[in-house]
Amino acid sequence: MIDWDTHRIIDMIPSRDTNTVSQWLSTYPNIEMISRDGASGYASASTKAHPNAIQVTDRFHLLKNLSEVVDRYIKNTFPSRVEIAASTDVSEEMKCLYDTANRAQRIRYAHAKRAEGLTIQEIAYLLHSGCKTIEKYLAIPENEIPEDRHIQRERQHQEAVKHKEEEISDIKQMYKEGMCIAEIAKATHHTPKTVEAYLDPNYSVVSGHYDRKRYGKMAAYEKEVIEMRAAGRTYTEIYDTIKLKGYSGTVAAIRMYMQKERVHAKSVKRAEGKDIVHRITLTQLVYHKLEEVKLITKGQYEALLRQYPELAGLYSLIKEFHEILFSKKAANLNGWVKKASLFAIPELQTFLGGLNQDCAAVRNAIKYDYNNGLAEGRRV
Fold it and tell me: Where are the transmembrane segments (predicted)?
């Protein structure tokens, strides 16, 4: 119990029992206003001890309870990686998949994101790594970070593409200078059919078979591996889990698969018109403004809400509830409750039930400035 005017602690009680709290409150006959959380036991104790006192439900606890309801709904409904329509701006998630194919790039990326203010957990989600791995990356001095080392297959592919581009350019120049296809074929040691293909403006220097996924020992476990890695599980933990389900490959194969998945994502995910948003980002948006959440862009956020309109409704519901609580307009609460009741989410309906039972105190929370702030986290 704290005096509102002096901010000083008057008394404390080591119990949450309704009767004990009621007796305790009764020893202070001059109480006119009681700010409390929404627990029914506190409401009953307050009413029993001081039936004429004005009771106020603490606004922080109201917002906290609503946010936790939406948080639980998201965690129970959405997978760890949510696919959405690709937006024009590239998210940190996709940039990471594009640009961190080797260890040196991953270490530098971790350092850069840490300097931007991201937490170790957020960086771990972006890099599909464990928090301990990120801590090791961050412990490496920047002047000791090794040079980039491309995946051998990717390096060979890039060199082959560059060579073919130069060769096709030479062939087009010959044709432009008046050489016929037969002459070009003889000079370049290609067949006339190959020269005709190279002269076709729609010809692609990248083989259609390149980066195509092949069926292997990992095939049946790919989705599960990505989800576990996104959740911060180590490669050894992932191996132990899928081995029990029949996986006969090695830990190294799992690590190589994730490395190729990052490269593969660059060419396939964007080509399919898809972006990836982590579920942790969806829950962060419950508690923070869009500009405060670093793992999603404005374009992706808009695409997410278009694809999942119920999410848009829930985010809007939290924002409106916050505005009502500080509006001094208790009459607006009824309309908000009606809107919230349209969502078929059991946890939300339970929250609304508690709101209706404590309706007078909730309205008083909107009308008055009193709250539990002075009593939270205090020590004698």
Answer: none
